[in-house]
Every structure is written in C-alpha cells, then in structure tokens.
Design goal:
33% of the residues lie in helices and 15% in strands. The protein is of the alpha/beta class and 221 residues long. It has one domain: HUPs (Rossmann fold, 3-Layer(aba) Sandwich). Strands 3-2-1-4-5-7-6 form a seven-stranded parallel β-sheet, sandwiched between helices. Helix 2 links the parallel strand 2 and strand 3. The chain is globular, with a radius of gyration of 17 Å. It catalyses: nicotinate beta-D-ribonucleotide + ATP + H(+) = deamido-NAD(+) + diphosphate. Its EC number is 2.7.7.18.
Length: 221
C-alpha cells in the first residue's frame, strides 16, 4: 500500500503474548478498510488493565517483528517498552501526536469490550483530544449496553464512515467491523503448555521461533 501524505496513522496496542492471526488479520483489515498510511502495533511493557504477560517484553516484541516482517503497512512501535511504569494509552498518543504534528489524522484501535470499559482507563476523556477511536466489532459480539456516562460521551463523537476520520486529526469514534477469528493468546499458551502444536494459528516464523525456544512449556525440538 502506498503512503498518502494525509492518510491516517493508527495504533493497535496489546500484550501480544504471543502474537497470532487473531491480531494480524484484523490489523490488515483496519489498514485497508480505513485507508491508513500505516498501522503501528504497540506491545505494552506493563499493561495497567490486564494481567501481566507471561513472556518478557523483548521476546514478545521479537515475535511481533517476525509476524509483520512481510506485511507492508504494519509496523512495530516499541515506544511503550522505552517508558518506565504502566503503559498508559494517553501517554502513547501524546507522544505520537507530537511526532506527527497537530494536523495528521491519528486513530487508536480497540476492541468493543475494551471500549465498554473505557471510563476505567487512565485519563480516558482526553484520548479523543489526541486521536480518533476506532472500535473493532465482530459478528457475534455480545452487544452489551454502554454505561450512561460512556453513551453520553459517545453521542456527539460517533461517525458512520472511515472517510469522516480523514477530515480532522482527532475527536471522532467509528465502529468498524473486522473478521472474527476464534484464536486467543490464552488458547495458544494452553496448547503449548500441553505439548501440542499451535502451528497454523500464527505466521510460521513466529511458530518456529516459539517451538525452537521451548516457549510456554512447549518441548524443545
């Protein structure tokens, strides 16, 4: 995909413990569906809203680089690994906004479950000052109602098309469908702990690196 001067940049964070196609396929769909110049996958060092990762940050990031090496437009952004303390999204967006300047459209992608919990995030009401929020939805999502606080915040910001994200640098919320892949990092870790293969659930270079290193308890080859 060619880079367009004013095309949005997007971030997709996570622990990637480990990365798998459930991360990669939606990232590609966001890249193409939103017409992004690039989508940055941001591995968290100390995620504040979930259990700590099993693998250390260096290993998770190495596997992530292997996963996206041959996918144009997907980039690994290591900025959260270079900061001490919890990996707050507000800090990450502020840093990238300073780099991109005030006019470039910036998007932060998150799942629908994470969006429903947004009022519990650090400085959550400031996120839309730095970026658009893109909420990924999948067929079969529970569709649980939003809290009154979040619904009131969302109402003046929600838009219906990706094109609306290109005309302003931040401040809008788009719900965007992506494919549902029944793959989870928890399931991958469980398979490997049982000595079973997780091949086919992630790019082959990632699987081979994990198997060779005996990660998650998988036996050495």
């Amino acid at each position: 995909m060619s880079t367009t001067a004013g095309a949005p940049v997007a971030l997709l964070g996570g622990t990637f413990d480990p990365v798998h196609y459930g991360h990669i396929r939606p990232a590609i769909e966001l890249l193409e569906g939103l017409g992004l110049s690039e989508l940055r996958l941001v591995p968290g060092r100390v995620p504040p809203h979930r259990p700590q990762p099993r693998l250390d940050a260096q290993t998770r990031t190495h596997l992530l680089h292997l996963a996206v090496a041959n996918i144009p437009g997907l980039v690994v952004d290591e900025r959260e690994l270079q900061r001490a303390g919890p990996s707050y999204t507000s800090d990450t967006l502020q840093g990238l906004r300073r780099e991109l300047g005030p006019e470039r459209p910036l998007c932060f992608a998150m799942g629908s479950d994470a969006f429903r919990s947004l009022p519990h995030w650090h400085r959550w009401q400031t996120l839309a000052e730095q970026a658009h929020l893109v909420v990924t939805t999948r067929g079969g999502d529970s569709g649980e109602p939003l809290s009154p606080e979040l619904a009131e915040w969302l109402a003046p910001r929600q838009v219906q098309s990706a094109q609306a994200l290109r005309s302003t640098p931040a401040g809008r919320v788009l719900f965007h469908p992506v494919s549902r892949l029944e793959i989870s990092a928890t399931g991958v870790r469980r398979l490997m702990a049982q000595g079973r293969s997780a091949r086919g659930l992630m790019p082959d270079p990632v699987w081979e690196a994990m198997a060779d290193a005996g990660l998650y308890g998988y036996p050495q080859q």
